[in-house]
Amino acid sequence: MPNETHTEPTDAQTDAQTDVQADVKYMKDSGEKRLIYIPSEAGQDNSKWAGRYEDRKVEIRDARNADTAFELDTAGFAITPQTSAVGDFYDDAQITEIYEPEMVTLLQGLTGAARVHIFDHTRRADSKSMREEKVVREPAGVIHNDYTKASAEKRIRDLFPEDEANDLLSRRFAIVNVWRPSNHAPIETAPLALCDARSVSVDDLITVERHSKDRIGEVQQVIFNPDHQWFWYPRLQADEAILIKTYDSATDGRAQFSVHTAFEDPTAPAGASPRESIETRAFVFF
After folding, report:
1. DSSP symbols for the chain
2. pLDDT digits (tens, 9 = 90+) for 126-139
3. Mean pLDDT (whole number) for 177-190
4. Which residues pair with 74 in a beta bridge?
5. Average pLDDT for 256-267
6. Which residue would you say has higher pLDDT here, 16 or 231?
7. What mean pLDDT comes out for the span 44-69?
8. Higher confidence at residue 10 or residue 167?
9. Angle, nearest 10°, between helix axes 162-169 and 149-159?
């Protein structure tokens, strides 16, 4: 994907640069043939996971201070500057009228896609009272990737007429998530840990059915591999966004997915503001 960007940190971000040791939640391979995930409903903390999990303490390195730039086609994730004109990320009208056009422009510019189709926004908060007030979901605390080949293709068939879906599926497409703070403040709690796709083997991934009210899809869960290389962006700013490639139909060696999770930052200051975030999912068609 051409024209991907890597931002230089500000002085404030440089001060916060750090590698951390933190627990992340892996799936244990129990040998079960069918695993089901029922996501939480907005405003509640009631996700249901079949299968067993284990916490593993891993090193999560500061991506801002790494000796390489991270790109969607290599690592599966990247960071980009993006100043939004949205005043209230909880206002659906502003999301539709302002933010979605911003995201189309951003993703076309960064990926070279001929077409971008926004199809989902997920708001999350690391505060129970905020989740109840705003009717949003909790941070996703299990290592996962959002799509499999089957569920990515099914999502296209769900969203587009048959003839158009067949045409879109005949060419390369990808799903890219854009993740950012939603309260015009830095992320201070429950930041994202992102695993470099080059360190993940297909044998590390387990397909799990995702059952929601209106459809059944698939996600990928991850079993532990000591080769995994984890990174994060400390204190993600209000004018920054993380790009996460959750599926790519290309099979030419580029990253096809990006596993990630929220984690508890052991360096978060006392009284840190609870995270509020919005994650936008988009098809990019080439």
Report:
1. -TT---PPPPHHHHHH---EEEEEEEEE----S--EEEPPPTT----EE-SEEEEEEEEEEEGGG-SS---TTTTSEEEEE-----S-TT-HHHIIIIIHHHHHHHHHHHH--SEEEEEEEEEEES-HHHHHHHT-BPP--S-EES--HHHHHHHHHHHS-HHHHHHHHTS-EEEEEEEEESSSS---SSPEEEE-GGG--GGGEEEEEEE-SS-EEEEEEE---TT--EEE-TT--TTEEEEEEEEE---SSS-----EEE---TTPPTTPPPPEEEEEEEEEE-
2. 999 999 999 999 99
3. 97
4. none
5. 97
6. 231
7. 82
8. 167
9. 140
CATH 3.30.750 for domain 20-285: no
How many angstroms separate the CA atoms of 284 and 178, rounded? 12
- How big is the chain by its Cα radius of gyration, in Å? 18
The 3-state secondary structure of 32-76, one letter per residue: CCCCEEECCCCCCCCCEECCEEEEEEEEEEEHHHCCCCCCCCCCC
Distance CA 38, CA 61 (A): 31
User: The whole model's pTM is what?
Assistant: 0.89
